[in-house]
Amino acid sequence: MATAAPAAASIFSSSISPSSSSTSSICHFSHLSLSVPSFYTLSSCISISPSFLALSAKSSKRASSSTISQSFTVKAEKKKVLVVNTNSGGHAVIGFYFAKELLGSGHDVTIFTVGDEGSDKMKKPPFNRFSEIVSAGGKTVWGEPVDIGKVLEDAAFDVVLDNNGKDLESVRPIADWAKSCGIQQFLFISSAGIYKTTDEPPHVEGDAVRADAGHVGVEQYISETFGKWASFRPQYMIGSGNNKDCEEWFFDRIVRGRPVLIPGSGMQLTNIAHVRDLSSMLTLAVENPDAASGNIFNCVSDRAVTLDGMAKLCAKAAGLPVEIIHYDPEAVGIDAKKAFPFRNMHFYSEPRAAKEILGWSGTTNLIVDLKERFDEYIKIGRDKKQIQFEIDDKILAALKVPVAA
Fold it and tell me: Which end of the chain is more exposed for a tag (fewer CB within 10 A), N or C?
């Protein structure tokens, strides 16, 4: 196998109107490591005179907001990257964008999608756009994780990203195969949903996680198995090709003149990142394996949005007014998880580690991104599709608000 050389019930209602992958020179590398809490281990390539500011702990369990000063020039080597991609859920679009980002930066990419190429799932985005990957020089294959050795017989890779498994049982076949092949860097798409509820948002790398969460077991396993590894914890995401309803939930109501029902005050904070930012963060990890090694990265936008704000921005993107109605799920006898696409609480993370360690910066601009998504929403005719609003109607009935005809 190829090896990778280091490279560098109360109601409130309101109405609103409408890299370059290389440089001209290669630095002389010095490999540095320092002993810090296990949740924030650093290892990086720094030029000429290695120096940095050590992270100081804000608390014994919380990473610092200190900025690490790093100045280095890295020439990214061409890597052979395997993306093991899920065949369902919101994470599928991550693999799609990541592959396109890598190909655009000159790397070789193979996407191994779990399942059957002829399945109905492959008729939906982002899978029905895989021709874009092939036309850019990438390869696409299908199969089951336990058969990866047979499917990819004689293929050689430098980096493997598992964007499929949510627990060790599903990831272990990929990780063990990668280890047996001498893969030098293993990356994993985890989830920011594993953080324990905090009284001090946002979540940053090093905050307490739920020990029983499947992703936690995977992170532990790969940290013990690979010399170079990193885990990325995304939240909600936006972007063309996403097949999980998020902004569409709001558009469905806004274009039909229905109120947007938001549990609680509507001031709860969350995080929505464009998937291109997630893929750019992953690409930086591939091109700077020593810096990324042993780290957890919140793979998110660097700005939060309130739940009310999301409704208003969606209405602005659609050029339509919106009526927002708040409700208490318990009082109306409704499970908020089934009635609303976001968590009914403050739930957002900050990409502190990616900024400090990888030099990453985000480009997410929600109003611009939502306009793009609304244009696609209209293009596919979803605004004309007949949609049932049974749960909404139950909430409105409980609040004694007339249901739209």
Answer: C
